[in-house]
């Protein structure tokens, strides 16, 4: 029952610079998001895109103690959730696509019953993940931004909020990250 | 590139992007004049940027979902196809999407399978396929999922099927291993279905576990008869791409490789024997959890189907010959008909049952006496007479081996009077068989669909044995209530006739039934004389009458016989499972039953509003005595558990009683997993102060109870639905409750009362008119805020019942409505002091919240709203609609609360709606 207290505590600790809090947060957020994503896809609310932000927002409401209003944990939570979304999606891509590179289609079974083919974009998620790891060596903020924007569907404004940087910086970083990653993936 | 130049690259890149592409080169010349590395890096990135186009332009997950939703097309809740209204999607397979839908004309739930759109021209080209699918739609068999119609609307071709609850056999197999008895039970049903379809020249072509639905009673239904080919060829006429896509997605269209017959994988012309091969493969998988020919790839699997022998050693020895004969490569060597297969399966099933029963009987039954149970000669029915000529056909195709076997054992012991007994019991067993095969013609006029079993009248004026007449009626009611096709008035409805001198037909009309069973019972020591008469209400004719002279020890055989006769005489179609459950005896000890019947008599007297503790204690004692005599008496354990729970909830705040209750229920369930009573009791516990008002669990328990006994607990379920704001479902349940027992004033009153509690006074008024011919009343005025009209009535009510919590609540609400907020609020603490945390608690706390809301005390109102929710009344639609809460609606905290409740409610809709 007190999971929400725990998550709130961990987020606060992480915000205060405690790195190990993050490691503890990951699995908690992971399981919640995974559950939510699966449920969404199963019960599919008839809108044409999955509202990823809605998904994360819902996870946030479930996981973070809402009564503790002195602390605004939403943006921090989004930052964690974004990384988790990346894990979820890449892990599944890896599981389904072991060994293959650059294939035309990457299958991402968020829910076993429902295989979704992402072939419009031709993005190899595993390669992208590896490129992001390299980018992290140079510019971690850009990686976080990609996670927020691409893996979690946050708008520029929301991402700026979550990263506590200006919108202009976010826009600049986003262009740069896209160009850099695109180059990495087309090499 | 060196990382230290990153910041510089970033800056230059960003600046360059602000220039027009044509000017960028010049710009770079300027700023990177002395740093070739930075310049080259930025140029490379700019080029990449220009080619990135849609790269990462849209969020990944949004993209995923779009891909999913486009492929699933699809219809949302409320979308109408013809006169079918979509409720929700329940599956997606190779053949298209499957929806749960409401048939708005016939007012029933159906499953819709929407095939990829078939145009009119396609349809003409596919006349033959349509004919075939339509032929499949004519199949009417208990183990075939009925196809109601095949239709087109809005360019969609769809198949309307019976909606069957349960899981697929494939899911079941994933979840658990099946024992041999379960395997045979399912196999017999499926083979039966195949035999029926094959007789109508309809082949399935895709028999596999995913096409069998099994419910938790072990009943199986075969889906998609005759549709595999229909779908495949219908699709073939579509665009190549669509076909290829669907084919690659699932082999379902053309059969499913591991279950395909050799002739099927060769693409040869198929006949019914292909289904027998697939059935064999499925039987194999059911028996050991593995597929007989599964290999790494489809190609290897196909090769194995054509060449390899199935590894029979993995499956139970008894099944090996049947599986082997089903899986022969050459169709001419296989079972030639499903009927042959069915015969072998059934005889194996019988053999196993006999063995089990024999060993159980040897262990369990000591020396029960069976003396002189017989029908009097003058009352032998014609059916009995015809059967007397049958000499001991014990091997007849009966599903009721147990009593026959029991009988044989008994006859060996008691040669006296044996022959008459034998005839009677044989009649019973054969009756079961005969109505298994009997098909009631549908739509026959004057068909009997409902019955009231009246308590048998005691003919001993002095004896204290009314409980017996009621007990016998109750046992018969319990048995025949398991027949889905028959509406049986519950014991609670007929109880009032115990001491009432009333003509049976009059009672029947009062109960709004079309048949009635009445009778008498006379007990003298160990002897019973029971007479029964089954009447058709429309013309008062007797459908069956009989008199039993029997020893008390034979009371169960008599109950069996009466129940079966009712089913037979009313020409009801029983499924095998129903027939088996009717015959199921809860105890083998007549003495234990005697105590149980007495206990139930007192159990029914327990009333929450009255001081009936002595009745509870008596019931507990008597149930315990019954259990002492027969420790395996599951039903007695269940009802004892229920009694403990009722005491704990209504009479004595004591968690230890709940623990005791749970223990008894666990024992009952272990002894007999099919008792609705266990689930009814668990509902009662789950939705109580002891377990934190677990509504979802409680609802699930009630649904389980209803699966086992379709007539029970509808008003309870309706009540729970109302508590979480599933109003539509609640109304449906109340209507069902009234169908089962149309005269139940408690149900009607509850139905009305809940509309008031939901702040729907106009709907309540309408119901009041419908049920009681009553007009506006105190509650109506209060809910409508009609202060002037309410004032005298509230005072009147309070004068009459100054101790009533309801009357006090009304008073406080009235004060608040009159604007006397100080007075109303000041009275709250004293009011709370008196309240117990019982079932009504949350309704009182809700009214406290309303009183504060009317007085503009937002914080207090919200506090009590949250208490209300926590105490088991999370009713979002009420909170959203109630005008009493209007004064606090602008408060952002209330808005937040409401949003939370809405989300929870949507969750309920999804999970339980």
The number of strands of chain B is: 16
Helix content of chain A: 55-70%
| Helix/sheet category of chain A | mainly alpha
Radius of gyration of chain B: 34 Å
Structure classification of chain B? alpha+beta
> Number of helix segments of chain A?
8
Largest interface: A-B, 50 and 40 residues
β-sheet strand percentage of chain A: under 5%
Oligomer: heterodimer
Averaged pLDDT of chain A = 68
Shape of chain B: flat
Protein architecture, described:
The complex is a heterodimer of chains A (187) and B (913). Chain A is mainly alpha-helical. In chain A, 68% of the residues lie in helices and 2% in strands. In chain A, strands 1-2 form a two-stranded antiparallel sheet. In chain B, the strands form three sheets. In chain B, strands 10, 11, 12, 13, 14, 15 and 16 form a seven-stranded mixed β-sheet that branches. In chain B, helix 8 (180-199) runs antiparallel to helix 12 (273-288). Residues 63-73, 117-126, 231-254 and 365-446 of chain B have low confidence and may be disordered. Chains A and B meet through helix 2, helix 3, strand 2, helix 5 and helix 6 of A and helix 1, helix 3, helix 4, strand 2 and helix 41 of B.
